[in-house]
Design a protein that fits this description.
179 residues, 3 strands
């Protein structure tokens, strides 16, 4: 009888299992928090890089061909059809082949790529939405200012109708008349 009682037990106790589960849970929580911070920084970095690329393409097009931004955006902001969407609309889910929000945007990127020689045809924000491009030449004053600054930016999240951007960049108008 003594031998059966002294036989060594195999396996883990419930306390050991609970300790391991708690440690794994703590490590998972730390990892998730760290991942969210990295993802937000990556989105910000992508937006900043895209803004630099758009800005550079616009500046090159202006210097190279003397093309004013209004000729690239067809005398209207690419965002005009997007601003009319209802609040909360996910612009990424709109049809890229039939919705004017996307059609105006892609047409402006095509013209900008042709005018500058810099390929910006596929620039979309980290959430799959178009960027905001607004030309302001000849707008904004009475009489209209010929040299108003243009704007590029990112739509607010969640989307709200109208000209709402969360980050934008003003592009100096470099037409000869403005120097």
């Amino acid at each position: 009888m003594r031998k059966a009682w002294a036989k060594k037990q195999k396996g883990f106790t419930i306390v050991e299992l609970l300790i391991v589960i708690v440690v794994i849970g703590i490590l998972a929580a730390i990892t998730i928090v760290a991942y969210n911070g990295i993802q937000a920084r990556a989105n910000t970095n992508k937006i900043n890089a895209d803004m630099r690329n758009l800005n550079q393409a616009i500046e090159v097009a202006r210097y190279k061909d003397g093309v004013a931004m209004r000729y690239i955006t067809l005398s209207a902001a690419t965002g005009s059809p997007c601003w009319g969407q209802p609040d909360g609309t996910d612009l990424a889910t709109l049809s890229k082949t039939t919705d004017n929000c996307w059609l105006y945007y892609f047409a402006a990127l095509d013209r900008l790529t042709t005018a500058s020689g810099i390929n910006v045809k596929n620039l979309i924000d980290p959430w799959g939405r178009p960027y905001y491009i607004d030309e302001n030449e000849g707008e904004g004053a009475d009489p209209p200012k010929a040299c108003a600054d243009d704007a590029i930016g990112v739509y607010a999240r969640p989307f709200t109708s109208g000209q709402t951007m969360t980050k934008h960049t003003w592009i100096r108008n470099i037409q000869p008349a403005c120097l």
